[in-house]
Amino acid sequence: MIDLSVSRQQIDEIDSQIVDLFEKRMAVSNEVAKYKLKTGKPVFDKEREEQKLEKLGSMSHNEFNERAVRELFSQIMSISRKYQYGVLPHTEDVTAFQKVEQIVSGEEQRVYYFGVPGTHTQQAMEDVFGAGAQGISCQSFRGIMEAVEKGKADFGVLPIENSSTGGITANYDLLLQYKNAIVAQHVMKIDQCLLAPAGTKPEEIRKVYSHPQGLLQCQQYMEAHPGYEGIECDSTAAAARKVAEEGSRAQAAIASRRAAKEYGLEIVADSIQQEKNNCTRFIIIGPKEIYTEKSNKLALCIELPHQSGSLYRILSHFLYNDLNMTQIESRPIPGKNWEYRFFVDVEGNLEDAAVQNALRGIKEEAAFLRVLGNF
User: Fold this and answer.
1) CB 120 within 8 A of CB 190
2) Is 292 noted as a catalytic residue in this protein?
3) Which residue in the list 129, 200, 280, 375 is annotated as catalytic?
4) I want to staple 119 with a disulfide (CB 3.0 to 4.6 A). Which of 23, 230, 237, 335 is the partner?
């Protein structure tokens, strides 16, 4: 029988040799980085690395080891690249963002928000900009994006993610179609209520109007009332306005307490969403790529080479630089079946060395990178 202690001692000795050789290799990588700095050559040379992996894999003696050797040296090369990115001086071409002292000035702001008066988005807008802001309702997400880009609005407020129903995918796609940047975010607790004309009894209701997100957030309540038919509207507040204007006791709306007050409706049932800690994250967009010293979250859009392991290699830049990824959302790339772009949020500020190092590596290795905001 094999003596386990002897085998472990042999492994320890081999591991010690591996560490010694690894450090020697990294010392050579430092010299490579100096050469690339002097000559302006890129850190990432995909063709060279693939040739190396093919040669190294062929040195192994069975199929398993061949795949293992390729994976091992892929990681070593990736670590070497990350080291070289850190050695090279920081440059201005990673982003065009400018640092400012504050995002919102003391002046009255023109702020476009989604939906008619009474929406949760209007409440988020007032929470961020105060009662003095000139709030302008807009019936589409695209309309808000266009208003900000064309200078009709100083800022825009859009919902981007709900804690119980996930990302609002249409707004992720819109972020790439305009030059606007995310300059702030606001998280707000969302209580959905069943609203109807005064005196309406629950058993009288037949049709319930709301935004698709409102219906999704209250799906369990709707299933518990099979006599209710859910009908989609442009916004929760638009649903409340419709019910108020038509005045039928057979109709109700899923909307906010604010909408009930705005349109003179009665709350038939309170807090009917299935997730009692239901929150929505709103983004504030502006026409300029700016951030402040206190900005601590980055929103990125990344498109990857359509090949095995590309997502892992890109995300490893966050791991290596000790950056906490807080959100990832995938969206199909138009015109490219089964290829996806990824919307990623990570903690950090554009001035952080770790952030600059990660962005430099991702920019060089990804098919596309855009920083959507630092807020």
Assistant:
1) yes
2) no
3) 280
4) 237
